[in-house]
From TrEMBL:
The keyword Lipid biosynthesis applies. Keywords: Cytoplasm, Dioxygenase, Fatty acid biosynthesis, Fatty acid metabolism, Iron, Lipid biosynthesis, Lipid metabolism, Metal-binding, Oxidoreductase, Oxylipin biosynthesis. SMART domains: LH2 (SM00308). It holds the Pfam family PLAT. One of its GO terms (biological process) is fatty acid biosynthetic process. Plant lipoxygenase may be involved in a number of diverse aspects of plant physiology including growth and development, pest resistance, and senescence or responses to wounding. Residues 107-232 form the PLAT domain. Its cofactor is Fe cation. GO terms for cellular component: cytoplasm. GO terms for molecular function: iron ion binding; oxidoreductase activity, acting on single donors with incorporation of molecular oxygen, incorporation of two atoms of oxygen. This is Lipoxygenase.
Length: 924
């Protein structure tokens, strides 16, 4: 029962102590002032705290004349809780850069807080919480809402706290009439936001511990327009199984996340909506910056991005003004993690470093050509000398200090790429050139050659006859005839002809000069690939309908022919570098996943099992994509400055998206479609690889199978039959929106799964997880290890093959190095390339890898936790197997001439340029 004591007079020390003796432990006190002073409720963890607070709080006791105070000491049931949160920190790029470069000196990652944002600000009445019942409803059918309670003392000894986190105790009034807590409201009365990580309730009757995994930014409650912030316990419910008192809360939260599709989005909002890519250009700045809108048309189809609602440009109302890009607040980086540090490095590069580099080259303070291969290697061995003003501009940037090594001198030094750590010249071999097609940073393009000569899929009424000019007679097939090689499936092709031909005439009118390439490869008896011919094609001078002008280059080891062969391989790699960055990396992972992120948050409640399954694989993706639109793939951005297609870069990826097929993103389906594997149930994973030692495919199939097995185990917990999938309203709305809106330009394609069975749901979720984790790891984290040495993976070609009789040809005869260096990426663009891909290739210190979760309490379902543990154990076994393969001398493609073991699909990794590790999501 409650004990009520009326206190007459002021709150004097003896009377206060006497009052609190009624209940020595935790007490609630209601202070009522009859003269119109109102009612103030407060909770105190002890009589001592109660007395001290009264003594020190003027509104209660120190102002004379406040009489008739009534103290109510509540002996009702209490639920103890622990709230873990993180204060806002300095890692906000706008804050960092507001004072210019000088303001960056010494800031690093130190947390700075105002008096408002100090720990003491969380005490008292700054943050309130209310529990919501999952089992007892009010008169409106919604779960009963408990009384407001406030954060109390800080807990300093919690062993699970991470960097920058603080824990607070909290006590809720709760009794049997309220049932079991299933959610809670939270209100922030401060002007500054904070990051709410979790709430844990202890000793809940008949429940024990209840966990709420929050991971969300909480702003001042007035900003939410009476839409209170709600969080649910880590229970899992299909929509039809949701406890009745929580149903409306579940629906309201999804409605809040969807928004109404109007207005400019604000920083604190959590609204997920769709838009086309209409913010890459800025026509108001001139024709040079105008870019076509991608998405919403059959000419330029594209996946959708997150809507920002920014104002349109003046010259084109369909285009959005560039600027700070909104992403839903919980998708934003922002709390003491090194991935923030690395990603904001891209902004630092864009805004400070690159202009500094440009000034040095514009003023001819340093030459823009490498003079020798050693000149390139000096980037890592001795550094590149830059003017003092350039070094002084970039040196104070804390982000850049992590990437560049200046040591206070006038030299800029990059870390040595893995590909030249053992051998400085093995990259030049034909074997390494071919090996990187199956074990490099872009190992998912090589195809089996099933007809000869290779044909084109381009429309002949527009492009004429684009059939290859390579003939059987010129191919060295180690004694095999062409028919034998085809029949035994030993011929393969890396084909960039159709991708580049439609754009090549325009590309070659810029400063770039390039070919559309086809490369034929032969599978040797020892399991390695041998390039046997490269075709270089140009648009016909008489017009596209006349076909292409092509020349065939054959391998050579001596004389000027060997230099021509080396240049031919460079043209192939330039095409491969561009396709890799724009299609394999950006389009096929970053861009295609974003609609799934948006749809999942709009249509699947956090209580939904599929939301819990997929959400870790979306971490930070919308934010890194927004940053890419702002600094990397935008008009005159880093990609356009340093890659061959320049202003046509992202437009080309739109043309490739026309042929994107969701089911073919499954690794087995992809391998079969590319003709590098055939269906065979006698082989592991149901496919036989035609290149047995294909590191990406061999390791990838193991990872794919492990992911699919985990998804199957998990999905089976919640869907006993196909009809359960069909009748899941949230799931069906989710998939309908993915197909019809998120990937709406392809919505009429017949290949979309109907999502009417458990099998379709398992395959769909496996594809999403594979794409966001393993596929992205395979095409991203090898960028610097392979491409950090620009000779191995140039991104530009600046001139065509020299013709006999020209000065360039004579130079080529005299020096293969000068001919090569004058053709590929020059020095300035190399510095830009290396700076960016070093950031993109790094793992963050707080990376969450495949088979891991950032919170062990992500679900309360012990069956799901056991299945996930099984998944993690399987990945450990797989990783050990990968290590054994890399030590097998008979598998030449796993190491290659450069002595670089294939580790990109090892599940675990470490911070930095490690060349291994599969993060859960596309987070960089």
């Amino acid at each position: 029962m409650d004990s009520k004591i009326t206190i007459s007079g002021w709150m004097q020390k003896p009377r206060a102590q006497e009052c609190c003796k009624v209940k020595e432990e935790k007490v609630d006190v209601k202070m009522k002032q009859p003269q119109g002073g109102g009612v103030v409720e407060e909770h105190f963890s002890s009589a001592k705290d109660f007395y001290v607070s009264k003594e020190k709080t003027p509104r209660y006791s120190r102002r004379k004349g406040i009489k008739g105070v009534t103290g109510i000491l509540n002996r009702g049931q209490k639920i103890k809780g622990t709230v873990v949160l993180m204060r806002k920190n300095v890692l906000d790029f706008n804050t960092i850069t507001s004072g210019g470069v000088g303001g960056l000196i010494g800031t690093g990652l130190n947390v700075i807080g105002s008096t408002v944002d100090g720990l003491t600000a969380f005490l008292g009445r700054s943050v309130s919480l209310q529990l919501i019942s999952a089992t007892k409803a009010d008169e409106n059918g919604k779960g009963k809402v408990g009384k407001d309670t406030f954060l109390e003392g800080i807990i300093v000894s919690l062993p699970t706290l991470g960097a920058g986190e603080s824990a607070f105790s909290v006590h809720f009034e709760w009794d049997d009439s309220m049932g079991i807590p299933g959610a809670f409201y939270i209100k922030n009365y401060m002007q500054v936001e904070f990051y709410l990580k979790s709430l844990t309730l202890e000793d809940v009757p008949n429940q024990g511990t209840i966990h709420f995994v929050c991971n969300s930014w909480i702003y001042n409650s007035k900003l939410y327009n009476k839409k209170e912030r709600i969080f649910f316990a880590n229970k899992t419910y299909l929509p039809s199984e949701t406890p009745a008192p929580l149903v409306k809360y579940r629906e309201e939260e999804l409605k809040n996340l969807r928004g109404d599709g109007t207005g400019e989005r604000k920083e604190w909002e959590r609204i997920y909506d769709y838009d086309v890519y209409n913010d890459l250009g800025n026509p108001d700045s001139g024709e040079k910056y105008a870019r076509p809108i991608l998405g919403g048309s059959s000419i330029h189809p594209y996946p959708r991005r997150g809507r920002t609602g920014r104002y349109p440009t003046r010259k084109d109302p369909n285009c959005e003004k560039p600027g700070e890009v909104y992403v839903p607040r919980d998708e934003n980086f922002g709390h003491l993690k090194s991935s923030d540090f690395l990603t904001y490095g891209i902004k630092s590069l864009s805004q400070y470093v690159l202009p500094a580099f440009q000034s040095a080259f514009d003023l001819n303070l340093t030459p823009n050509e490498f003079d020798s291969f050693q000149d390139v290697r000096d980037l890592y061995e001795g550094g590149i000398k830059l003017p003092t003003d350039v070094i002084s501009t970039i040196s104070p940037l804390p982000v850049i200090k992590e990437l560049f090594r200046t040591d206070g001198e006038q030299v800029l030094k990059f870390p040595p790429p893995h590909i030249i750590k053992v051998s400085k010249s093995a990259w030049m071999t034909d074997e390494e050139f071919a090996r990187e097609m199956i074990a490099g940073v872009n190992p998912c393009l090589i195809r089996g050659l099933q007809e000869f000569p290779p044909k084109s899929n381009l429309d002949p009424t527009i492009y004429g006859d684009q059939t290859s000019k390579i003939t059987a007679e010129v191919l060295d097939l180690d004694g095999c005839t062409l028919d034998e090689a085809l029949a035994n499936r030993r011929l393969f092709i890396l084909d960039y002809h159709d991708v580049f031909i439609p754009y090549l005439r325009r590309i070659n009118q810029t400063s770039a000069k390039a070919y559309a390439t086809r490369t034929i490869l032969f599978l040797r008896d020892n399991g390695t690939l041998k390039p046997v011919a490269i075709e270089l094609s140009l648009p016909h001078p008489d017009g596209d309908q006349s076909g292409a002008v092509s020349q065939v280059i054959l391998p050579a080891t001596e004389g000027v022919e060997s230099t021509i062969w080396l240049l031919a391989k460079a043209y192939v790699v330039v095409n491969d570098s561009c396709y890799h960055q724009l299609m394999s990396h950006w389009l096929n992972t970053h861009a295609v996943v974003e609609p799934f992120v948006i749809a999942t948050n709009r249509q699947l409640s956090v209580l939904h099992p599929i939301h819990k399954l997929l959400s870790p694989h979306y971490r930070d993706t919308m934010n890194i994509n927004a940053l890419a639109r702002q600094s990397l793939i935008n008009a005159e951005g880093i990609i356009e400055q340093t890659f061959l297609p320049s202003k046509y870069s992202v437009e080309m990826s739109s043309a490739v998206y026309k042929n994107w097929v969701f089911p073919d993103q499954a690794l087995p389906a992809d391998l079969i479609k590319r003709g590098v594997a055939v269906v065979d149930s006698s082989f592991p994973h149901g496919v036989q690889l035609l290149i047995e030692d294909y590191p990406y495919a061999v390791d990838g199939l193991e990872i794919w199978a492990a992911i699919k097995s985990w998804v199957e185990d998990y999905v089976s917990l919640y869907y006993a039959a196909d009809n359960d999938v069909k009748s899941d309203s949230e799931l069906q709305n989710w998939w309908k929106e993915v197909v019809e809106v998120g990937h709406g330009d392809l919505k009429d394609k017949p290949w979309w799964p109907k999502l009417q069975s458990r099998e379709e749901l398992i395959e769909t979720c496996t594809i999403i997880i594979w794409t966001a984790s393993a596929l992205h790891a395979a095409v991203n984290f090898g960028q610097y290890p392979y491409g950090g040495f620009i000779l191995n993976r140039p991104t530009l070609s600046r001139r065509l093959l020299p013709q006999q009789g020209s000065a360039e040809y004579d130079e080529m005869v005299k020096s293969h190095q000068k001919a090569y260096l004058r053709t590929i990426t020059p020095k300035y663009q190399t510095l830009v390339d290396l700076s960016v891909i070093e950031i993109l290739s790094r793992h963050a210190s707080d990376e969450v890898y495949l088979g891991e979760r950032d919170n062990p309490h992500w679900t309360s379902d012990s069956r799901a936790l056991q299945a996930f543990q099984k998944f993690g154990n399987k990945l450990k076994q797989i990783e050990a197997k990968f290590g054994e393969r890399n030590n097998d001398a008979s598998l030449g493609n796993r190491i290659g001439p450069v002595q670089l073991p294939y580790t990109l699909l090892h599940p675990t990794g470490e911070e930095g340029l490690t060349f291994r590790g599969i993060p859960n999501s596309i987070s960089i």
